[in-house]
């Protein structure tokens, strides 16, 4: 593959992995953010610590833990294999690594948004006859939507930039797991590879900046609506 | 005394540094990363890299070098499998042994060990068959880890790596003629670094290198 | 339509033990801050379960600690108007108003959006966002939202507390319309403002330190001398009903009550309308003989019903004027010196300003 083609392939794969990772992680992150924000239960601090672990562990360590847990030879890996899901050296493994690395950031953003919703509004909705699901869907969700969006964008951006855990878990396989950061790293490892790297760095920056701009614009729209503009 | 060195030299260099009279601060990393850091002005007295390509690049960048770079150790390439792997009857059995798994090597362009592995596989006529069944890592120790964890059936690493890891078994030694010489060039960047450089080429250092699976360079 | 409330609840050092019934019309819960009013109304709404007791509506238990029965707020069909309005910030006024309508059972009767918009003067506000509304507008929207959920009963927790004088005066007529109008919803109304209670309530429950101190029809409770310390000496006063006769050119209005005619300033109502007046007890003077040459224009012949000596230097006198009752607050010394006793006939003197401003309502 020419280096240009390799670069586009890496971008395509990064977008693919990042989109999947975001879509799969958002509902789970929202649920965890909810119970951390609203519920009290035994083991709550433990759960919070566990969620934040990928934030504080070196990415390589996280990747190694994933290898130990989900590698071909590992218990969970074998279990998933038997039902047809192979994560090893497959883009789905890159998705898992991206989800885990981005999860703490998503949960944090969403939890803050949920905590900012006045529970008295939810009380008011209950007195108006709304069942729990309706309260969540018609009152809470619209109010935390900007926070969910912020969390999703952070998760997406993190997935686009994830390197250490991914390469340790699923290596660098063009077309499968050679994401943009991996390709940039590989280019930088070759003497004189800076030019190729620069092109890919610009690609990555455009995507990241684009994502942030879109989320900012959406957040502004929501805020303006509430302010009555 | 600050020494920047390629990651694969960790065990050996730590021992040499301990035996050295005086404090030595060791910093390990990928050859490319180290070279770029030094070119950008990192305050190292000595640099030891894992291939001549990056050393040549460093010289081209105009980095101030006291003495011409010289190799301080050499290495050989081995094919490894998990500890309980069956011996390989002939090298051409490699693709079959892979079956549905992958061959773990360092990244073919970015990691020196990966470049050497590719050269060897090309010389052995196996490259085309296995090039789409690779698991390329960002450093050779990660490839070793894949084999240790049973994530892959085979890997190509340095002999020094195989020595360091009891859970793997060497299945084949690459003929030295099948790849570029695996030499570790070292250079002194400051006058102070010269002393450590000489220590690296001493007989004692040679013994330590050999014990760690490298080949000592005969001066 | 009866709401039967019996609640025992303890939190921290506060101990609540109350029992009362609320029938049709407006039942007011009155007490100072910390008397337990909001706790009671929240328990009625089902926002929490008290330690013990029961809340029953027309015989159906909404909460019963012995039977372990508890109906969730959404199923109780009470419209709750909160002190802080609590409009949904991301929905405009119309969307707020119609929020609960879809949850009302098909059989529920209630007003339509147009009815409520007219009743509360919301037509110009329908497309506005809550953040752009004034306090009074928010509160009206909150009332409308509660009504449009087609509740069986309204619960209002100090709905006017966060409004200033003029805004309050603006909304009180709307609340009177709720009580008197075609909707005819029973309302449980929590307040610590005596003028609101005097103007709106049909039944009054007086709370102090977590206990019910007095409970009964408004006129009876307000005219009871025992209510004076509970309402505060400056606010206590009996409520009487009078009919507006004429507005004089010098600013006084002539009203007819069963005890005699009164001349009061600041009455806006049209001739022929019946209004409620709260006559402040501290501004009612007594004279054993019919007074002559006084500046006060209102003099009514009264019969003393009861002389109630308090702990301090004051005494509260219950008076009957025709069919109405009045309260007068005088000193114990005056009681002694004038020899005021039950059954005695004398005269009550009301200055034109003896009627609490803002307590002239329908």
From TrEMBL, chain A:
Q: Which Pfam families match?
A: BPD_transp_1 (PF00528)
**Which cellular component terms (GO) are annotated to the entry?**
plasma membrane
Spans through the membrane:
15-37, 49-71, 83-103, 139-157, 197-219
Give the location in the cell: Cell inner membrane; Cell membrane
In this chain the ABC transmembrane type-1 domain maps to: 11-219
Which PROSITE patterns does this one have? ABC_TM1
For membrane topology, the record states:
Multi-pass membrane protein
> What residue stretch is flagged as signal peptide?
none
* The entry's keywords: Cell inner membrane, Cell membrane, Membrane, Molybdenum, Transmembrane, Transmembrane helix, Transport
Please name the GO terms that the record assigns under molecular function. Answer: molybdate ion transmembrane transporter activity
Domain of life from the UniProt record: Bacteria
Concerning CDD domains, the annotation shows: TM_PBP2
Record's keyword annotation contains Transmembrane: yes
On whether S-adenosyl-L-methionine is a keyword of this UniProt record, the answer is no
The role this protein plays is:
Part of the binding-protein-dependent transport system for molybdenum; probably responsible for the translocation of the substrate across the membrane.
- Spell out the family assignment given in the record's similarity comment: Belongs to the binding-protein-dependent transport system permease family. CysTW subfamily.
Looking up PANTHER family in the UniProt record yields: MOLYBDENUM TRANSPORT SYSTEM PERMEASE PROTEIN MODB
Protein name per Swiss-Prot or TrEMBL: Molybdenum transport system permease
**Organism of provenance:** Sulfitobacter sediminilitoris
């Amino acid at each position: 593959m020419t280096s240009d083609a390799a670069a586009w392939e890496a971008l395509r794969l990064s977008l693919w992995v990042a989109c999947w990772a975001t879509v799969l992680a958002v509902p789970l992150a929202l649920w965890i953010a909810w119970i951390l924000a609203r519920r009290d239960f035994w083991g709550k601090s433990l759960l919070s610590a566990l969620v934040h672990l990928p934030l504080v562990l070196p990415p390589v360590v996280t990747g190694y833990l994933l290898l130990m847990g989900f590698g071909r030879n590992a218990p969970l890996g074998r279990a998933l294999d038997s039902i047809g899901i192979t994560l090893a050296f497959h883009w789905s493994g890159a998705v898992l690594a991206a989800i885990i690395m981005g999860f703490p950031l998503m949960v944090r953003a969403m939890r803050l948004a949920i905590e900012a919703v006045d529970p008295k509004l939810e009380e008011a909705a209950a007195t108006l006859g709304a069942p729990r699901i309706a309260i969540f869907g018609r009152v809470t969700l619209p109010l935390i939507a900007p926070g969910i969006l912020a969390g999703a964008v952070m998760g997406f951006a993190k997935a686009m930039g994830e390197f250490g855990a991914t390469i340790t878990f699923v290596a660098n396989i063009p077309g499968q797991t050679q994401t943009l950061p991996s390709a940039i790293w590989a280019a930088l490892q070759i003497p004189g590879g800076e030019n190729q790297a620069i092109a890919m760095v610009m690609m990555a920056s455009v995507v990241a900046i684009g994502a942030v701009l879109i989320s900012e614009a959406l957040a502004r729209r929501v805020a303006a609506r509430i302010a009555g503009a | 005394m600050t020494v920047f060195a390629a990651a694969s030299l960790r065990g050996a260099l730590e021992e040499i540094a301990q035996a050295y009279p005086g404090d030595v601060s060791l910093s390990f990393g990928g050859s490319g990363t180290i070279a770029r850091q030094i070119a950008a002005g990192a305050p190292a007295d000595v640099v030891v890299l894992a291939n001549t390509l990056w050393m040549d690049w460093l010289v081209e960048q105009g980095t101030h070098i006291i003495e011409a770079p010289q190799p301080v150790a050499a290495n050989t390439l081995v094919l490894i499998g998990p500890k309980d792997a069956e011996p390989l009857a002939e090298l051409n059995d490699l693709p079959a042994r892979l079956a549905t798994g992958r061959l773990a090597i360092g990244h073919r362009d970015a990691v020196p060990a990966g470049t050497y592995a590719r050269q060897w596989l090309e010389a052995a006529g196996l490259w085309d068959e296995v090039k789409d069944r690779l698991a390329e890592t960002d450093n050779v120790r990660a490839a070793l880890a894949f084999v240790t964890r049973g994530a892959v059936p085979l890997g190509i690493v340095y002999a020094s790596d195989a020595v360091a890891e009891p859970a793997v078994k060497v299945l084949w030694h690459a003929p030295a003629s099948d790849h570029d010489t695996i030499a570790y060039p070292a250079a002194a960047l400051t006058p102070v670094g010269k002393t450590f450089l000489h220590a690296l080429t001493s007989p004692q250092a040679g013994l330590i290198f050999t014990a760690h699976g490298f080949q000592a360079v005969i001066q | 339509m009866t709401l039967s409330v019996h609640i025992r609840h303890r939190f921290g050092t506060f101990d609540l033990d109350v029992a009362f019934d609320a029938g049709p019309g407006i039942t007011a819960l009155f007490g100072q801050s910390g008397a337990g009013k909001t706790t009671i109304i929240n328990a009625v709404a089902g926002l929490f379960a008290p330690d013990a007791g029961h809340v029953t509506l027309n015989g159906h238990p909404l909460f019963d600690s012995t039977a372990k029965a508890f109906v969730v707020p959404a199923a109780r069909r009470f419209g709750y108007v909160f002190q802080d309005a609590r409009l949904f910030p991301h929905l405009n006024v119309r969307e707020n108003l119609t929020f609960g309508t879809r949850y009302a059972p098909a059989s529920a009767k209630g007003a339509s959006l147009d009815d409520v918009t007219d009743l509360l003067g919301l037509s110009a506000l329908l497309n506005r966002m809550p953040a752009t509304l004034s306090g009074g507008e928010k509160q009206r929207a909150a009332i409308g939202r509660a009504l449009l959920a087609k509740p069986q009963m309204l619960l209002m927790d100090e709905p006017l507390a966060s409004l200033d004088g003029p805004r309050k005066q603006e909304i009180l007529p709307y609340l009177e319309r709720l009580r008197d109008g075609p909707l005819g919803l029973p309302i449980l109304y929590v307040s610590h403002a005596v003028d609101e209670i005097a103007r709106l309530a049909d039944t009054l429950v007086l709370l102090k330190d977590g206990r019910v101190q007095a409970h009964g029809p408004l006129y009876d409770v307000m005219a009871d001398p025992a209510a004076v310390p509970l309402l505060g000496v400056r606010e206590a006063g009996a409520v009487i009903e009078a009919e507006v006769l004429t507005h004089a050119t010098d600013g006084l209005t002539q009203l007819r009550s069963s005890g005699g005619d009164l001349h009061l300033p600041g009455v806006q109502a049209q001739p022929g309308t019946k209004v409620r007046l709260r006559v402040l007890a501290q501004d009612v003077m007594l004279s054993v003989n019919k007074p002559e040459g006084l500046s006060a224009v209102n003099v009514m012949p009264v019969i003393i019903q009861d002389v109630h000596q308090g702990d301090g230097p004051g005494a509260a006198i219950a008076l009957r004027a025709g069919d109405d009752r009045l309260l007068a607050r005088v000193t114990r010394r005056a009681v002694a010196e004038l020899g005021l006793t039950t059954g005695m006939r004398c005269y009550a003197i009301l200055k034109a300003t003896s009627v609490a401003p803002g307590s002239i309502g329908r």
